[in-house]
Amino acid sequence: QLQLVESGGGLVQPGGSLRLSCALSGFGLYGYTINWVRQAPGKEREGVSCITSRNGNKNYTDSVKGRFTISRDNNRKTVYLQIDSLKPEDTAVYYCAAEIAPHRDVCPVALDEGSYDYWGQGTQVTVSA
Known about the structure:
This protein is mostly beta strands. It has strands spanning about 5, 10, 20-25, 30-40, 45-50, 60, 70-75, 80-85, 90-100, 120, 125.
């Protein structure tokens, strides 16, 4: 059983930065596409970014391109989401979700909850002055 634990959220001023972590336990990163998903208050969940296992392909939703950077450390079994130039509209609970996809070369960032096999508990990011 794979477990995902997010951390790194917090309260930050507009323009600030945070680094979110998604630590995997139970298995290594091999074979899993990792997705970052967020849910803002009163809104539906939104796919933010993803990274594949096979070739490290990365993808981002348009609203975060140039500000968010996803990366993975296979030795630490952790996926990171560096979020810079934060805006109030980035306020949300951020979740990581793992999809069993060892052959995937490209990950679709659009939310596809039916494909996700494991979820973390989420970490709150609040952007406010």
